[in-house]
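Objective 1.3, modelling of assemblies. Example input:
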Amino acid sequence: MKRICSRVLTALLFLWITAASLLAAQVDSEELFRQANELQGGGDLAAAVQVLGRVPSPSAGGDEEDFVRSRMQIARIKFSMGEFDQAEGAAQEVLRLFPANSEALNFVASVKTEKKPRYVTFLDDCRRFLPHLFKGAGMTLLLMVCIMAISPLGGLLIALGRISHFPPLSACCWFIIWLFRGTPLLLQLFFIYYGLPSLGITLRPFTAAIIGLGLNYSAYLGEIIRGAILSIDHGQMEAAKALGMTYGQAMRRIIIPQTYKRLMPPVANEFIALIKDTALVSTIAMVELMRAADQMFNTYFNVTALILAAVIYLAFTTLFTFIFEKIEYRAGIYEHR
Amino acid sequence: MSTASAPLLRLEQITKQFKGVTAVDGVSLDVHPGEKLVIIGPSGSGKSTLLRTINFLEVIDEGRIWFEGRETGYVRRHGKPHLERQNVICPVRAEIGMVFQHFHLFPHLTVLGNVMEGPLTVQKKGKDEARETALAMLAKVGLSEKKDVYPATLSGGQKQRVAIARALAMRPKLMLFDEPTSALDPELVGEVFDTIHGLADEGMTMVIVTHHMGFARELADRVIFMEGGRFVVESTPAEFFSERLGNERIRSFLNRLI
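Predicted structure (tokens):
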């Protein structure tokens, strides 16, 4: 009887201890989280980590959920402190017990990318964005070169028309300049691409871009070329005429060749502006450099795409500035003594 | 001098106005082949304007122009002359060489290129032929060694000699000189004067507008003193510079020059 009683008592004691310890553990966890949050809110992160570390692991009889919660909170605190190794360690602790925990898996992955040196991340971004950006840059380059070929010819025709003594022609050229210099390029592009279809003319984006940019730049270059022609000493035309040249021969052989040097600085200026104005055609469904960068930026929310696009634009403007300077030097070679 | 022959150039009652101001006032003039005519007069007397009407650089308001016995350059509508189209004008200009006060060389062409330009573009000659002509003309003005440089590197006197070669390369029948030495430094006048003198000796017909009395004295067959758009005196140089010529205006003009 006595033996039975002692056994029962022992069992009761055991149950009591177990119950008490279980109860104590539960109360402790809640208390620990509360304390930790208080400390974290007060800015004492190290102390908060220490408190959270006292939440027991399931092997020591702790609650699974509390354990995961505490270790992940440690991981986030360490991450915010920039201590990536310890942050990862906390997450790994969770993974050792629950290898499939998605929160911990994601966290480890993001710590891994964060732990990479900045330049490696940047190179990864470059590798990701550049192929698409280069494709866009190719279109930008194609547009530029086309306009650079077309607009001087258009400009020359407009300039010659403006200075002609045939009133309807000069009035017509005046009107073109007035119209295309007086309205925004963006509006012209919209009108040509979105507006003309309502008049029964539907253009492909590339055609619309070439027409819009071409007309606009021809108008600007027309005024520049006209100014350059008028700036040539009148004696040159007289000397050419005195030799027996026709107006056309004098223009072609004597006057226009002398304008090249004077044209280069303002034309280079216009063409540099053109390189950047090509970005406007991104609004009419053309994928060029600006549009490509925009797509990358909107997909990845990564500013590197925009920076890379800026660098490519700068490369273009630098290259063309250099080329224009060389041409200007060559065009004025006869003035060097 | 062959006054008996038909005139190469005939101007008849030429009048030219600029905005109501009469620059040339009913002037008539014959220039015979081989003749050297020098026109002098104060600034604004209309002498340059008159010279420039000869190759239609100035469009006349009244009058008629004959070149090689044919009336040329203008059609008459309501009795007024209207300049013809360039298919008529240009061939006449091609036969008349002109040298300007400020040279007007083509700065973007080499010296050789300047002299070749007329034969190449206007006469449509081949490159080799034009080059040969140009080299001969440069030799004539003594600038063969400068053929490959650009005009910017030349002195004023050299530029004017190139301009003369450029005009000569067209083998003109008449040469017009519009104050050819007025823009030159005094020490450079001589070389240009000598070049024109050499040309005169070859029998070139020329009309020279100048302030340089050497042309009038040494080179002219006939001297015209112009003032107010009219010919005041027309005489031989000997007569012109003699004391016997009793014109007050000429005497004071000459005195001011010397």
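The two ends of chain A are 131 Å apart (CA to CA).
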